[in-house]
Inverse folding.
């Protein structure tokens, strides 16, 4: 297991009802295929060794004995494979017949888990043949010449890994308190479900939602597979639905009603799941007294080193992959920004807003959010004071964009040139104006903030901050300059999402003239414009040339702050996500800059103004990131040097 990944699979084999020999052959074939694909744990459907639809044939001892014989042959045939397989079969224990999952690996039966909840409704009559695994029987049984743990109180614990898992069968997951809940609270990070669900209209979406929600509530991986179309169609059809979910998200899914065998697989990130559980006080503090004391069944993950993973790693984790989802996300973000700012306006009874507009992405997004808020509150847009403050680095392009944007939005535009004020300040503090150092840049940023604050005092308005989440993580803001405001509407939005928000606004919030200007702004390089332009009047100071690509930094933010991935793992994931775009060394270099800036600029985040949380990453010192301003980055950087 590399970086906490474990490769799991779900199989839907061809099947002949009641023909255990044929079913054994198909199961072995799929196990061998799974071995070649480096699958580490593979699950088969409910009663896959006999067929789920055997009916009263389950009363026949010949079927039950044949199933055990074929299980023994599967065990022998897979003795030299590393894969752990979970197979469904009926099993007679004492006077009772159980619907069971049998886990085997390297020629050994590890344990048997019986189904807990036996359905007898909606055309299902399992209670005719099977009893619940909760009935009191021996907790060790003899099977294929082995003494084997048996019961619903079993958890499989990986040696030297975090690949702990539990098993439940079909309807178990549909009960008010599924067995997987107790298993998760006892340490299982993954659940495997052997199922046989009939195919009826509307069932697909319901089943998908159940599996997604269960993986979310348990903060776990959930691997589900169901019997396919080769089951008896006397009264119903089985669809062969298989899916693999992780903490509420579907990673891969089978084709339903396929006439071919199916084998889906991907990786579950156990490190990520453990991190999410550590952070969840609700999960951590949930009472465990209502569940059995679980027995542990040991197993090992053998022999594989994964140099690559199958699961998709998005290079833009904050940006939904489909246009429809992006539209929903953008609409929701604007609604959150507007609701948050509207509350602040109502609370303060201040009906004016003041913000700096530069012709760049962040100030444009903030202005659009303020306009939407004022429209919602039926406050005239003239109460929005948009101040553009050209300085030493302002180009004609961005100045024109800021002026045009303010005019088309019909807000109160004010143009205040800050160059003379900055020159006077240089004289006051003894700064050489030809020395383009940090002081030269920050004087301009603080002059702009002073103007905004003073206008707000004069006009009885609120200064609206424009800085985004990515800049705050990197500390790419001037302390007590653009770092400060009276309310910050963009503080929860990463840079890679801002572009999509503005694109969405162009098509949904405003008219055609403003849309044309927004398109122009989207083409402008990201820059604080604090250094003089180039010889042709173009932007010379490009932020991403200095601190690195924002697409990488947002990727780092998501994986490091989101769930605590270590630098080595982040490099591995980034190299896969941005395949061919960045070398490993380039990623390491930018990640090193990211880590150094993140640690050294916490003092700026410790005193952030109010602003709404938008997504999973929250930097607020009150409800979000709780971190000392003088913590050391050495351990994180060491990971990059080794």
């Amino acid at each position: 297991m590399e970086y906490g990944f474990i490769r799991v699979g779900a199989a839907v084999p061809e099947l002949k009802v009641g023909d255990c020999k044929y079913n054994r052959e198909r199961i072995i074939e799929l196990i061998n295929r799974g071995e070649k694909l480096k699958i580490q744990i593979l699950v088969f459907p409910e009663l896959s060794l006999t067929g789920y639809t055997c009916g009263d044939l389950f009363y026949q001892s010949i079927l039950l004995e044949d199933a055990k014989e074929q299980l023994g042959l599967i065990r022998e045939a897979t003795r030299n494979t590393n894969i752990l397989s979970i197979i469904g079969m009926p099993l007679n224990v004492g006077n009772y017949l159980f619907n069971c999952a049998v886990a085997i690996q390297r020629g050994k039966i590890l344990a048997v888990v019986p189904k807990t909840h036996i359905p007898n409704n909606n055309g299902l009559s399992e209670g005719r043949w099977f009893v619940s695994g909760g009935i009191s029987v021996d907790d060790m049984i003899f099977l294929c010449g082995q003494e084997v743990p048996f019961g619903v109180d079993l958890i499989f614990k990986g040696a030297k890994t975090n690949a702990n898992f539990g098993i439940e069968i079909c309807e178990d997951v549909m009960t008010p308190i599924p067995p997987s809940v107790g298993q998760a609270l006892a340490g299982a990070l993954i659940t495997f479900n052997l199922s046989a669900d009939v195919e009826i209209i509307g069932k697909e979406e319901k089943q998908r939602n159940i599996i997604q929600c269960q993986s979310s509530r348990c903060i776990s991986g959930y691997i589900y597979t169901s019997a396919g179309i080769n089951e008896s169609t006397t009264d119903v059809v089985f669809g062969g639905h298989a899916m693999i979910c992780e903490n509420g998200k579907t990673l891969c899914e089978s084709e339903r009603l396929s006439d071919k065998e199916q084998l889906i697989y991907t990786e579950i990130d156990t490190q990520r799941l453990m991190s999410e559980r550590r952070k969840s006080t609700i999960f951590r503090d949930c009472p465990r007294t209502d569940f059995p004391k679980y027995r542990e069944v040991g197993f090992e993950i053998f022999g594989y080193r994964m140099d690559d993973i199958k699961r998709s790693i998005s290079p833009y984790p904050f940006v939904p992959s489909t246009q429809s989802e992006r539209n929903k996300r953008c609409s929701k973000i604007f609604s959150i920004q507007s609701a948050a700012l509207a509350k602040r306006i109502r609370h303060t009874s201040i009906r004016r807003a003041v913000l700096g507009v530069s012709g760049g992405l962040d100030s444009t997004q903030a202005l659009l959010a303020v306009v939407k808020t004022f429209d919602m509150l039926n406050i005239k847009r003239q109460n929005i004071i948009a101040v553009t403050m050209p300085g030493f680095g302002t180009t004609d392009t961005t100045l024109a964009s800021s002026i045009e944007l303010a005019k088309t939005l019909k807000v109160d535009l004010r143009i205040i040139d800050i160059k003379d004020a900055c020159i006077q300040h240089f004289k006051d503090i003894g700064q050489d104006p030809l020395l383009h150092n940090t002081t030269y840049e920050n004087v301009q940023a603080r002059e702009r903030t002073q103007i905004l604050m003073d206008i707000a005092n004069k006009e009885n308005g609120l200064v609206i901050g424009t800085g985004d989440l990515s800049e705050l993580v990197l500390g790419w803001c001037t302390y007590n300059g653009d770092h400060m405001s009276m309310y910050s509407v963009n503080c929860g939005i990463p840079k890679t999402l801002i572009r999509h928000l503005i694109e969405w606004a162009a098509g949904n919030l405003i008219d055609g003239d403003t849309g044309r200007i927004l398109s122009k702004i989207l083409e402008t390089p990201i820059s604080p414009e604090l250094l003089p332009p180039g010889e042709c009047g173009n932007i010379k100071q490009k932020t991403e040339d200095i601190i690195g690509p924002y697409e990488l930094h947002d990727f780092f933010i998501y994986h490091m702050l989101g769930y605590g991935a270590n630098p080595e793992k982040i490099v591995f994931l980034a190299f896969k996500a941005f395949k061919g775009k960045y070398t490993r060394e380039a990623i390491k270099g930018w990640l090193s800059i990211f880590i150094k800036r993140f640690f050294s600029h916490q003092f700026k985040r410790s005193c952030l103004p109010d602003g709404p949380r938008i997504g999973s990453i929250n930097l607020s010192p009150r409800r979000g990131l709780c971190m000392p301003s003088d913590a050391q980055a050495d351990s994180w950087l060491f990971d990059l040097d080794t």
Notes: The longest helix spans residues 323-348. The domain at 5-299 is CATH 3.60.110.10 (Nitrilase/N-carbamoyl-D-aminoacid amidohydrolase).
